[in-house]
Specification:
Elements: E1 2-5, E2 10-13, E3 22-26, H1 37-55, E4 60-64, H2 71-80, H3 84-101, H4 117-129, E5 133-135, E6 141-143, H5 159-165, E7 179-184, E8 199-201, H6 203-215, E9 219-225, H7 229-244, E10 250-256, E11 259-261, E12 264-265, H8 276-282, H9 285-293, E13 301-302, H10 305-321, H11 336-347, H12 352-371, H13 377-390, H14 402-420, H15 424-436, E14 439-444, E15 447-452
Parallel strand pairs: 3-4, 3-9, 9-10, 11-13
Antiparallel strand pairs: 1-2, 5-6, 6-7, 7-8, 11-12, 14-15
Length: 454
């Protein structure tokens, strides 16, 4: 099995540090808002990778964190006039609802940054003692980038190259590239006591503490989106290797490509988000997963309703192949070659597009076998097995939830009001919105009826 390592820039043979366990860490969400389709891309991609590692016999200890204290969390709680803890609990709950709906396996552990304060303080204290960090006059603590000669090895740049483009020089920092390990408390913000005064942890140190606490001083795989390569993961390497004295901190760094909406990356800052809840109103979780894995995980993925609909049709073809009966006891359809192709593709840096192509060829073979009166049962079992590795449920699209049903009825009432006022353009816009949700409506003498069509 070969995996592309961002650190080396090439595919490497995967040999875990411990033959009995793969230690895998995936950076989690900052819990201040709903998860969007970009999160689905990231977490489905690494869910498939985890499932395949387990399928190949590895015991995977999978850790995914929650960043539950952050500038954005504080700002959002102030906006809404609610305690930050209440905001965090709400969106952690929403996260699990979304991930479960996408059939993403639960992590082995979900540590929270605020639960790791003692470990974070220990790491920061050690870095100060080793002269890799310093305390600023206001009680903040910064990592000294110049103390770590290897800084820039993940981004394949030198510190001097990065320093030229850095613009965040402040009086508190000795070098523009230095980054906060501990932030001194500001009025009205949550804080924890430390040897340097009240404050809260910086973002990067949280993941280092959680990785080391729950997976040990060296990891097999550390993963996340490409936007985390710098500064987050670069900073993690620096502070972790300085803390432990061991290299490498992570054996293989993995990063998924960006999700694009039109010409732009989908992101909260650009305000061009499609939430996971919105996506699931329109398409099944299997279709969303097929849309994502049909693109190589390291490449950018362009969000497309047409491609999602094509994925829905593809999933229907798989489902139908499991329903044909063939001729029990007849000549069996040979399925071994498709499994071999599937494994060959996934062993080559988790090439899911090629693996899925093997599944669709297996579907075609099942249908041919059915037409010829062959026994298709073993081939169907193989399809279920391999589809399960990708994370497909191959179940039908569920009926609308009460929440979605209420939304549909609300839109229909809105459309009827526009029609009554003879505002036909607005009425057509509402119909288009319903169509995008996968809802077909029919106007009858007794009123408007609707049904989910996909």
């Amino acid at each position: 099995m070969k995996i592309f390592n961002t650190l080396s820039g090439q595919k490497e043979e995967f040999v875990p540090l411990d033959k009995n366990e793969v230690k895998m860490y995936v950076c989690g969400v900052t819990v201040y808002d709903l998860c969007h389709f970009g999160h689905a891309l990231c977490y489905i991609s690494f869910d498939v990778i985890r499932r395949y590692l387990e399928y190949r016999g590895f015991n995977v200890k999978f850790v995914q964190n929650f960043t539950d204290i952050d500038d954005k969390i504080i700002a959002r709680s102030n906006e809404r006039g609610i305690p930050w803890q209440e905001l965090v609990e709400k969106y952690i709950g929403e996260f699990f609802t979304d991930m479960d709906a996408l059939n993403i396996k639960r992590a082995t552990l979900y540590p929270r940054a605020t639960e790791e304060i003692p470990m974070i303080i220990d790491v920061v204290k050690t870095l100060i003692e080793k002269k890799h960090a310093y305390v600023s006059p206001d009680g903040s603590v910064y990592f000294s980038v110049k103390s770590f000669p290897g800084y820039g090895k993940l981004t394949h740049q030198t510190a001097d190259d990065m320093r030229v483009t850095e613009t965040s020089q402040t009086e508190k920092k000795e070098d523009p590239l230095d980054f906060a390990l501990w932030k001194a408390a500001k009025p009205g913000e949550p804080f924890w006591p430390s040897p340097w005064g009240n404050g809260r942890p910086g973002w990067h140190i949280e993941c280092t503490a959680m990785c080391i606490h729950h997976l040990g001083r060296q990891l097999d795989i550390h993963a996340g989106g490409q936007d985390l390569i710098f500064p987050h993961h670069e900073n993690e390497i620096a502070q972790s290797e300085c803390y432990t004295g061991l290299q490498p901190f992570v054996r293989i760094w993995m990063h998924n490509g960006f999700l694009q909406l039109g010409a732009d990356k989908m992101s909260k800052s650009l305000g061009n988000l499609v939430t996971i809840k919105q996506a699931l109103e329109r398409n099944s979780s299997d279709a969303i997963r097929l849309f994502i894995v049909s693109s190589y995980y390291r490449m950018p993925l362009r969000y497309s309703l047409e491609a999602l609909d094509a994925a829905e049709n593809g999933i229907d073809r798989m489902r139908q192949a499991l329903k044909v009966e063939g001729k029990p006891g007849g000549q069996p359809v040979e399925a071994g070659q498709f499994k071999a192709r599937f494994i060959e593709a996934m062993d080559d840096d988790f090439n899911a597009p090629q693996a899925v192509a093997a599944l669709f060829d297996l579907v075609r073979e099942i249908n041919r076998g059915n037409e010829k009166g062959m026994d298709v049962s073993q081939a169907q079992d193989m399809l279920r097995e391999l589809a399960g590795v990708i994370g497909f449920t191959l179940q039908g699209k569920k009926a609308a939830s009460s929440e979605i049903e209420a939304k549909i009825n609300e839109l229909i009432e809105k459309r009827n009001a526009f029609r009554k006022a003879r505002e036909w353009k607005q009425a057509d816009q509402v119909r288009s919105q319903l169509t995008e949700m996968g809802v077909a409506i029919e106007d009858t003498p007794k009123g408007t009826t609707w049904k989910i069509v996909r």
